[in-house]
Each structure stands twice: as structure tokens, then as C-alpha cells.
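Tutorial, part two.
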Amino acid sequence: MKKLSFSIALSTVMVLGACTDPSTLGGNPENKNANQGALIGAGTGAVLGAIISDGDRGRGAVIGAALGGAVGAGIGYNLDKQEAELRQNLGNDRVTITNTGDRLIVSFPQDLLFAVNSFAVRPDLQSDLGILAGSLGDYPNSTVQIVGHTDSDGEAAFNQQLSERRANAVADVLLGRGIPFNRIQTFGRGESQPIASNLTPEGKAQNRRVEIVILPNAV
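Running the prediction step on this input gives:
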């Protein structure tokens, strides 16, 4: 029975995967994250539906896949839309936006937000964070993680503390712009998660950053 249920769940996911592939339906590549979200949601829903169904596990998998696919597609669509609006409204090519299909990662270089060794957000950059806060207000069904990072210069303990303070400083700006406290989580990663080499000035500049991760909540 378990093997049969898993086979039905897998078949359902494969069918939905084909349905959400733009190449099979002439779909719009711009909706790739809605399609990806539908497939991820379908897979999760199929497995959960099969597990929690008291009777027909195969039927539970199909129902779970359909519901999960619909939720996932909605999340992916909203992320695509929010990403496009942020790119248009921010207008700052030093701020990068990455859409993974299940979250948005908005990365601000720390050199853009803060003076050296400071954790006070520069007044002239508050407007960019204000635009981000406006977007978060327009899309309220998400959790916002603010993660501070540094390069490897200096003592690791100092860098850890600085990254935490800078994450909290960005959180304070968003709170001041009306984002509820219960939506925001802050983290400091110090020098532990570089994205480039710390052996060059260019690499160090990339590693000094604050990332705002927008995680949609399933409804």
C-alpha cells in the first residue's frame, strides 16, 4: 500500500510538473517561479496528503498535490510580482535582488548603508529601506529575516557583534516604517558566510553586506 501511494503521489507530481513547464504549454518564462512554486507545492502536498489521509492514501496524495500546487503557484506569482516592483522602484544597481522561487533575497552592500565600523544607517540610504518597507507592507504575508555579514578583517568577535548591530539597525528602520515586530527576525553571521574571497578588496566588499530575506508564509 505504501509503495502504491508513493507511486500515485509521484505520478501526480510528474503530471503537474509537465503542466507547469512553459515549454509544454507555450507559457510565459516570466512566470517561472510561479511554475516552480506549483511543482514544489504539489510535491509537498502529495506526500503530506498521502501521510495524513485516514482512508485512501492515493486519493489523499492527489488532493494534497492539487492544493499544494495551487498554494505554491500563488507564492511564486507574488514573489515574481514583488521582485519586479522592487527592481523598478529601488533604481539602485548596487542593491541586488535574488528570486529563488520560494523567497526573495535583497542584498545591500554594507558600505552603502554604513560608514566604516559604524552601525548607524546613513540618512541618505533610509529612502531605499523605506521603499523596501513599502513593498513589505504591500505584501504582508511574509516573514522578514535580516542578516548581517562582514569580511574577515579584524577580530572575529568584533565582526560578529558588528554584523548583529547592523542587522538590528536595519530592522529598526523597517519597524519605524510600520513593519510589525512579529514579522522581523535578525541575525548576525559575522565573517562566517563569505560569498567571495577575502583576499582581495573587491571580494571583501562583496562579503560586507546586509541581506533581507523575504519568506512568504503559506496560507
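DSSP finds eight helices and five strands in the chain. In part three we will examine how such features are distributed along the chain.
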